[in-house]
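Minutes, structural biology subgroup

Action item carried over from last meeting: produce the structure token record for General secretion pathway protein M (Pseudomonas solani). EB confirmed the sequence was re-checked against the source entry. Recorded below for completeness.
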Amino acid sequence: MNPLSSLQNRWRQLPARERRALLLLGLFLGPVLAWMLLLQPQRQALHQAEQDYQQALALQADLARLPAARPQATLTAEALPGLLARTSAEARLNIERMDHEGAGRINLGLEGALDDLIGWLRQLQQAGARVASLGLEVSPDGQARARLQVEAGA
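Output recorded by EB:
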């Protein structure tokens, strides 16, 4: 005797009222199980995907607010004297002396306002020059005399 025939016999032995109740229970449990096993996981996955999308949008907005990285400028040894002369004149600094050394180094003596000197040093760094050494004398009225060694390349 196979299991299917034993279930059919058992079903036939049940009173009609119990068979009807089991059929109604089966009709109720069928959609509930379909909902629980098929549709609800899909809704949860959709909800999770929406949350992931919102997080990605927030991250993209945060990244857009970050300052853009500027590429580091490269400076050749041949361009260094011209850069020093041009930028120091723009910063209202007077070059007292400029001595060229080998390997792209220049010893420089200059004077001017301290604020102008500090801004000029920042501008040099952004242009790709490196200050190897700096000697600074500042007067009480804000005038500065600087002796520095500048190298090409950052």
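Discussion: The beta strands are 94-101, 105-113, 129-138, 143-152.
Next step: EB to file the record with the rest of the batch.
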